[in-house]
């Protein structure tokens, strides 16, 4: 009788979903409590935007090293260290009062979160079949954007009960507990995990999209010869530039544009991230289904990403043309859902291009994405002060057109490994 395969890999996908929730709640909480922090620390919009920029700077600088380290030491060890590190600096965010120190803490917090996505990319390369990677990648991303759905309600409740400092203490403690859980249950390879039965192990090993499991260094000199390596980074710069803007400024946008209370803006900030959460999962499922139907990876990854960008641009244009608050929320929700689909396809395409070196390729992509995220909150805050929110958001459509063009050069059907002498040595 044929053994029915276990599904331990999907248990880990759920764990990554939870990690994503905690990571983005840690990151996005400052957007919800912005008025309290700005008042207590005497920060204007530009200075407050710099908090997100310093986080993004630390996060971006560590992307490529994090990919290398995840490939060298494995996702289990790297993610454990990352969870403890960023949780400790989450707690410190609520402790420091000095301007210089709070910027330093947010920079180091970004350094700590940096290994999360590259480690996930490496883990997914070894634990999932090639036609499961769209869904696998979407789980961490979906968790990341489910965090902002529930963060406003939870965060405001904590602030009202204990003050804004307690937000960082509580979420930091939760992150440390999650690090302990991950360290106990995780393994780098399914071959090493006792709960993975023989049927699941053989299924994964037969269908995963890698060359070999031996540790090796990424052939960077070869990667730089391919325009697809630059294209996936360039379009992701645009993705994260846009997401960071909304992540930091959405509640403030609602309060200033529609003159509502912070509590009301917190509730209205949740639907856009909820729509993004659902569309990220849907995009990953549809992408994998198209691959199983025999469609090319360009259709399953790039075409879906392009549709996501177009959806974002059209819905954002309609959002800024309405004076009705609830219509605005609805259109922004669709808009962010579209950019979420594109983000999910970016990570799936990065693992397609990188294969064994998914950590390095995704780290490279996320480096440029977070340079965009580093610039976005500060520039958007300054622009909003000068030209208003409507014109600031309207400008976001311009880089999207450029990013759509770049997707035609990503070419996920052509892995960066193919033809490289450095890679043939692994086989």
Topology as H/E string?
A: HHHHHHHHHHHHHHHHHHHH
SS content category: mainly alpha
Task: Indicate the percent of residues in helices.
Answer: over 70%
The CATH superfamily label reads MFS general substrate transporter like domains
The portion of residues forming beta strands comes to under 5%
How many individual β-strands? 0
The CA-CA distance between the termini, in Å, is 34 Å
Examine the secondary-structure arrangement and name the CATH architecture.
Up-down Bundle
Instruction: Calculate Rg over CA atoms.
Output: 21 Å
Low-confidence stretches: 419-427
Largest sheet: none
| Name of the top-level CATH class | Mainly Alpha
- Predict the CATH topology: Growth Hormone, Chain: A
> Average pLDDT value?
85
Number of helices: 20
Oligomerization state of this entry?
single chain
What's the overall geometry? Answer: globular
Number of domains: 1
């Amino acid at each position: 009788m044929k053994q029915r395969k276990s599904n331990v890999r999907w248990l880990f996908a759920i764990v990554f979903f939870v990690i994503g929730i905690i990571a983005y709640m840690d990151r996005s909480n400052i957007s919800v409590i912005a008025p309290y922090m700005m008042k207590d620390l005497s920060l204007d919009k530009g200075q407050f935007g710099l908090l997100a920029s310093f986080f993004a700077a630390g996060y971006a600088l560590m992307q490529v090293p994090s990919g290398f380290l995840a490939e060298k030491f494995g996702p289990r060890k790297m993610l454990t260290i990352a969870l403890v590190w960023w949780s400790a600096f989450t707690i410190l965010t609520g402790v420091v009062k000095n301007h210089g120190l709070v910027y330093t803490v947010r920079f180091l917090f970004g350094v700590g979160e940096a290994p999360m996505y590259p480690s996930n990319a490496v883990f997914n390369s070894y634990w999932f079949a090639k036609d499961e990677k769209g869904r696998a990648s979407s789980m961490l991303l979906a968790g990341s954007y489910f965090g902002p759905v529930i963060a406003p309600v939870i965060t405001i409740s904590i602030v009202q009960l204990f003050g804004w400092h307690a937000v960082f203490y509580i979420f930091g403690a939760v992150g440390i507990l999650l690090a302990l859980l991950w360290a106990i249950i995780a393994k780098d390879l399914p071959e090493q995990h006792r709960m993975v039965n023989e049927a699941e192990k053989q299924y994964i090993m037969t269908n995963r999209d890698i060359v070999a499991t031996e540790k090796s260094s990424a052939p960077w000199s070869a990667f730089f010869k391919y325009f697809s390596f630059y294209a996936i980074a360039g379009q992701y710069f645009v993705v994260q530039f846009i997401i960071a803007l909304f992540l930091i400024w959405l509640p403030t946008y609602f309060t200033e544009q529609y003159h509502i209370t912070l509590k009301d803006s917190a509730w209205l900030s949740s639907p856009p991230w909820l729509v993004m959460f659902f569309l990220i999962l849907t995009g990953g499922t549809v992408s994998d289904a198209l691959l199983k139907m025999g469609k090319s990876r360009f259709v399953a990854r790039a075409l879906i990403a392009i549709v996501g960008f177009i959806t974002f641009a059209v819905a954002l244009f309609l959002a800024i043309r309405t004076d009705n608050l609830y219509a605005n929320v609805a259109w922004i929700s669709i808009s962010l859902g579209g950019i979420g689909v594109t983000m999910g396809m970016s990570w799936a395409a990065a693992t397609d291009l990188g294969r064994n070196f998914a950590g390095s390729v995704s780290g490279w992509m996320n480096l440029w994405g977070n340079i965009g995220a580093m610039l976005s909150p500060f520039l958007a805050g300054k622009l909003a002060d000068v030209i208003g929110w409507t014109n600031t958001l309207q400008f976001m459509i311009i880089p999207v057109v450029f990013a759509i063009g770049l997707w035609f050069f990503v070419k996920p059907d052509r892995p960066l490994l193919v033809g490289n002498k450095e890679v043939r040595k692994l086989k």
